[in-house]
Design goal:
The radius of gyration is 25 Å and the shape is elongated. The protein is of the alpha/beta class. It folds into two domains: 260 residues, Rossmann fold (3-Layer(aba) Sandwich), CATH 3.40.50; 186 residues, Spore Coat Polysaccharide Biosynthesis Protein SpsA, Chain A, CATH 3.90.550.10.
Length: 452
Amino acid sequence: MKIAQAIQITQGDVVAFVGGGGKTSAMFQLARELPSAWRVLVTTTTRIFVAQIKQTSTWLTHNSEEAFPDLLTRLEKRFAISSQVLLIGHADQTANKTCGIEPSLVDWLSATGRFDAIIVEADGARMRPFKTPASYEPVIPTCATIVMPVIGLDVIGQPLHPDHVHRAELVSQLTETPFNEPVSIQTVAQVLSHAQGGLKNVPHQAKVIPLLNKVDGESDEPTTARLPVARQLAREVLQAQRISAVAIGQVRQANQPILECHARIAAVILAAGGSSRFDSPKQLALWQGQSLLERAVETALAASVDAVIVVLGAETMQSEQLLSDYPVQVVINHGWAKGQSSSMQVGLTTLPKNINGVLFMLVDLPSVTPSIIDQLVTRYRQTLAPIVWPEFKGQRGNPVLFDRAMFAKLHTIQGDQGGRAIISTHQHVAERVAVSHDGILRDIDYPEDLET
């Protein structure tokens, strides 16, 4: 996917890139991805190499003594001939770099409302893939709405030394990693999620989405050579609640620079029904020596989800007893008789605010495996599709994963239909995952279904 899709940029956003390992490339790549009808201002509050200016066709130099309104007038003239303009400070001939502009100027320009997006490089790393900021870094405008700390995955395994890490001594102090020891996944995760590292100077309103760059490895390695490392690092980083998501990619692959975007996903197990056709509490029925409820919970806990919520309604006492030793959140749907939609909405209301996707599981599908759930989660990470479902020989089954963009629509459903209506109206933007067996279709409606 594109960087713009991964961070879900909207008009009016101010995106700040910090860290090391490809910030400038990411900044210009994001600018190229945005619609041609947008007025996109690209700038820096630090210094960039003169050669990097050539990544854009239109730029403007700002003198620090120039009044802000006068600068805006000059910018308007440039935007009359180009939809994207790079704004820089004066040149530093000794370093072959250009200086940045004051962050207060970025704030002022953003407040004018004249730009559809502002993209800022707000940190320097001396061409190193990884860093910890000094006391005066990073220089993030207070108006930033998205902050992307960038690291180059090629630093993993390299010695913690200035040859590979900018301000290596500060990384050592922050993480207690000995100098010259290999940089580990844990070391990088600690820095990215630390208040004096990747979260330093981040405005309170800004989403934080780290970019794990250079996933392809070296030229003699296969594509996505570092993907397992990146996925593990993403899991570690998402332990920090302040971080919204983690993008994994190779920025220099301009066509599809982001391979995956990891965000928090919750599994909501719908187990509130009265089992009218089953003649006894279905969720308590045994299948292969285990209740259907326990089977669903253990399946969810074994899969790649970040939280498991169980919605109960009928027969709550026995169900709660069964779940007492499981690390799940139990919520009661007192209006369970209104149908499955009421349980879905109770589950949605219970979700933590930092959950980006929800996977609805039915308690009566015991053949669903953790592997099937993981396939759905992986496809979601690769596409950020609003809906992802499994199919067996072209037939849609369960569970179904919904992006946060669908939550408001799910709240409008009534009756005993689940998300079927939403799925039907959005199937043109949904993603399908082909599975190899029909367990996604075989629900338990009658006692004899347990045997067949």
